[in-house]
């Protein structure tokens, strides 16, 4: 029993290693996957950043507050932290989705039929794809996180401490788990690379708005907010924002209220937190951070159960379908690898047994 268990664990990690090698062997795919969050980051820096800062300046003008150099720097830090955290949350989904191309390619190229014909438990195979996806997604998101921290340091906007960094890493880990389970389940229904490419294009474009990465959810129509409430990335994005912005917001509040002692300081802070969606709200109802963490945990369990119970369907997809079995005359209980074995006796019946020819 223990030997069988050990063998299953060994196969599990060997399969995971195989998926990683296949992914990283394709340099173009690796670069494209890595460039997706970097490109969004570059678009923000060169095009969107000034628009966000312009909105903040308008808020200051409406409140009659004159910004000095220090206040400007605090505001820039807050705006950058808001956007960078949103991109980080978005990356856990888009990168995870793109990583599943290995899973889909194996289906299309028939590699999975070799797995099914071998004595490999289907749950071990599916679990190896999930672990592979998680590892790649986390690695690429950590690379993006390092880029963010370097940018904040270069802009003299680095206010994060060790506790903040550990909190960000923990939430990023948490978000990666939820994104991995969600995208693996979605992609289990995809059979061709063409369909996968279309899904990536459409889903990656829409999900940034649906999780509140580009704008606060309160600005979206009520119908769209209902959809957002059932996407785990919404809560992951809000949690990352909270961890990214907590210290910069505290520093800004201290400077505005404590140092400058502005009359409208508290109003300014309230305006900024509302404008940038620092606190998650659905239909004008504030969602507490603790509830967000619980909601994300529920989604993780939900998609975990879906992946477990969809194992039967995944096994059917990974093997040979009923139509193909009927075409090739393969018995229902025979694995995909038995197709050649089933065809061989039929060929011998048509051409005559080799042993009989030899005797003749």
Topology:
Elements: H1 2-25, H2 27-63, H3 69-99, H4 101-109, H5 111-117, H6 122-154, H7 162-187, H8 193-210, H9 222-228, H10 232-259, H11 265-275, E1 281-282, E2 285-286, H12 289-309, H13 311-318, H14 322-328, H15 338-351, H16 354-359
Antiparallel strand pairs: 1-2
Helix pairs in contact: 1-6, 2-3, 2-6, 2-11, 3-6, 3-7, 3-8, 3-10, 6-7, 7-10, 7-12, 10-12
Main location: membrane
Transmembrane segments: 28-47, 82-103, 124-153, 165-190, 197-217, 289-309
Protein name: ABC transporter permease
| Secondary-structure class | mainly alpha
* Shape, per Cα inertia axes: elongated
Order of helices and strands: HHHHHHHHHHHEEHHHHH
Radius of gyration over C-alpha positions, nearest whole angstrom: 26 Å
The major β-sheet equals: 2 strands, antiparallel
In total, the number of domains comes to 1
Helix content: over 70%
Which regions have little confidence, pLDDT < 50, spanning 5+ residues? 315-320, 330-351, 353-360
Percentage beta strand: under 5%
Spatial order of strands in the largest sheet: 1-2
Number of strands: 2
Number of DSSP helical runs: 16
Protein name: ABC transporter permease
GO cellular component, one term: membrane
Keywords: Membrane, Transmembrane, Transmembrane helix
Membrane topology: Multi-pass membrane protein
